[in-house]
Amino acid sequence: EKRKKLVIYINPPYAEATSSSTIVGESKHKSGLSDNLTYERYKKDLGRGINELFTQFLARIYAEIPNSKIANFSKLKNLQSSNFSDFRSFFRAKLEKIFVVPADTFDNVKGKFPIGFFIWNSEIKTDFKEIKADVYDKNANFIGTKSILNVVKNGVILNWMQKYYDKTGDRISYMVRGASDFQNSKIVFVTNAASKAVIEHSQTHNITKNNLIECSIFYAVRKCIDATWLNDRDQFLFPNDGWQTDLEFQNDCLAYTLFNNNIQSQYGVNHWIPFTEQEVNAQAKFASNFMTNFIKGKIKPAASNNNLFSATTTLSGFETLTGLEEETTSTNSETTLTGLNQLKFSEEATAVFDA
User: What tens digit of pLDDT does each residue of 210-247 get?
Assistant: First the structure.
């Protein structure tokens, strides 16, 4: 009963075992986070969330000083990141209130991300799903509210992209993909020259004729919305199925990717030129006409084990987006494919090609 009246107010020390800079080889893993008793005691309960020092504090207070009120400053990743799904399953205190401010309102913090002030009631056990946070600027002016959502396990855009990894098709470039939040969009790019560190840390996959459209969708939605201090930890989520039949969306994503990538012929053959030699008065033949052939419908995706490209009854998403025509025979219900049609672009995308 006495503990129900106990309020623990903390600005806990912050240290993270790994980060995006670690993954791309710019820094090293931080030591000291796993050589303490709290880490050993709670690592099975917190999963990857144990790698953050502030979550070790929260877990220990929640378990060892039950029914208390906890007020703390921290980033929002314990609410949003898929790496913290195990932490959220363990730490089931009710989040009563929260406000967020820019991180650089704190001394010696330079990043552009939100820091939240959380008020937890550990006497009430509930799963966090959603909350509206009050938002203040660096001058303490109230500027509105922001919805903060729990991301279900395996519910981010990287989980969707995994379905389209292609390890057997001929690579036309690498996709460097980063994690699924806005802060990692800066390390999402298309290139012929992925660094050894990036490849070794499994942060790339091959773009081939079989997954070009899906990769373009992944890339375009990640890059076309600017990251801000407020959305920095927001996650790009698993899409609904509407993309499979929205041809204009698919082709616009391809157009966006064509003109917003890091492909340079000095690092290998450029398969991403969306024009013929005649259209741009080239002085020599291009090493590859892959992209113009793909746009004209001359390149057919290979059959896939997950039946994405199968020719039965209904067209797959990829067949639909590339303009494959269907023809039903009179003797059975199977659908046969008669060929590829040229991709049709929106008025806006066409204007980009013209420019």
Answer: 999 999 999 999 999 999 999 998 999 999 999 999 99
For residue 1, which amino acid is it?
Answer: E
- Residue 290: in which H helix or E strand, if any? helix 290-295
Tell me the chain's radius of gyration from C-alpha atoms.
25
247-258 helix and 347-354 helix, angle to the nearest 10 degrees: 20
The residue assigned the tokens 């033949």 is 285
Residues 302, 243, 276: CA angle, nearest 5 degrees = 55
N- to C-terminal Cα distance for the chain?
Answer: 71
Q: Quick check: helix, strand or coil at residue 132?
A: strand
Distance CA 52, CA 77 (A): 10
Q: If we measure between CA atoms, which residue out of 303, 253, 294 comes closest to residue 271? A: 294
| pLDDT > 90? residue 178 | no
Q: Kindly state the tokens that stand for 140.
A: 């303490």
Instruction: Give the distance, in angstroms, between the CA of residue 254 and the centroid of all CA atoms in the same chain.
Output: 18
